[in-house]
Amino acid sequence: MRIIGNLLWWIFGGLEAAIGYFTGSLALAVTIIGIPFALQTFKIGLLCLWPFGAEVRRTDGPTGCIRIPMNLIWIIFGGLWAWLTHIFFGILLFITIIGIPFARQHFKMAGLSLTPFGRDVQLNI
């Protein structure tokens, strides 16, 4: 089921969204100050590439207390718009019965796109 879900996800816009996240990640990585944000954007792109079967987990990484200011900067400079986009498409897909599994993936991405620092994506391929 995961393979079929991921293939349908790719066909109906997931591949374009992942390419968009990867392109944004490359643009952020060009600057030195944008590298931590590029890593988070890349993480969201990976989740957008393989959403079915992937899990988002909280991590106890070495970031410590810097996680909160980095998430605030993230929210101010684009995280809120990414969150709103995933929530919008999740609600839109949740209206139809066949779109409910895809809506759940958008809600999973919405949680990650709002506060990506301190979370990790585990792909179960």
UniProtKB/TrEMBL annotation:
The keyword Zinc does not apply. The chain crosses the membrane at residues 7-39, 72-100. It comes from the Bacteria. One of its GO terms (cellular component) is plasma membrane. It holds the Pfam family YccF. Keywords: Membrane, Transmembrane, Transmembrane helix. Residues 4-53, 70-119 form the Inner membrane component domain. The keyword Iron does not apply. InterPro entries: Inner_membrane_protein, UCP028777, YccF. Signal peptide: none annotated. This is YccF domain-containing protein.
